[in-house]
Amino acid sequence: MLVDAAAATPKVGSLIYFSTKSGNTHRFVQKLGLAAQRLPLGRDEPTLHATAPYILITPTYGGGEAKGAVPGQVIRFLNDEQNRRLIRGVIAAGNTNFGEAYGLAGRVIAEKCRVPLLYRFELFGTDDDVAKVRKGVEEFWKRQT
Predict the structure, then answer these.
(1) What pLDDT does 106 receive?
(2) What pLDDT sits at residue 66?
(3) Tens digits of residue pLDDT in 12-31
(4) In which domain, by residue range, is 21 found?
(5) Fewest Cβ atoms nearer than 10 Å: which of 6, 22, 131, 144?
(6) How many CA atoms, within 13 angstroms, populate the side-chain half-sphere of residue 105?
(7) pTM for this structure?
């Protein structure tokens, strides 16, 4: 029996992320070792245009307030209809010092875009966070096929 190699390979979507000048989210994404595209830091730079399903990774802003929790660059990216249509899940960075608002940007995006909040991690994440997210992302994309 012949098996089509392309059909046997699970479809893996991409990661798109935003990271501030602090670089915490960028360091986390680098540790994942998965293909990822970074949203531009400057508000005046052209934003990305997603061409395939993706998981969004974003930091949380605002010090615990819902207003301002999602970075402006992420809002701008998600205001594009195609980018919104292709999002499949969200992972949020945050700070546990903010209690219930920890990773709030992820909850806001998940609710507004009707996608799952897949994971939250603190600052630039631990080795355990990296392992869980890497495994979780791979399993998530396998379930999407």
Answers:
(1) 94
(2) 64
(3) 579 999 998 888 899 999 99
(4) 15-38+52-131
(5) 6
(6) 29
(7) 0.86
Task: List the 36-38 sheet strands across, edge first.
Answer: 36-38, 14-17, 54-58, 87-94, 117-122
pLDDT tens profile 91-111: 999 888 888 888 999 999 999
66: in domain = yes
CATH number at residue 66: 3.40.50.360
List of residues 6+ apart from 64 with CB closer than 8 A: 98, 99, 100, 101, 104
Give just the sign of the alpha carbon dihedral 105, 107, 108, 113: positive
Give the confidence band of 80 by pLDDT, cuts at 50, 70, 90.
very high
Q: What angle do CA 30, 134, 88 make, to 5 degrees?
A: 100
Residue owning tokens 């992302």: 137
Residue 141 lies in a domain: no
Q: How far apart are CA 136 and CA 12, in angstroms?
A: 12
For residues 77-81, give the mean pLDDT: 96
Q: What are phi and psi of 82, to 5 degrees?
A: -65, -40
Q: In the chain, how many domains are there?
A: 1
Please give the Cα distance from 27 to 37 (Å, whole number).
Answer: 13
Tokens of 80: 């594009």
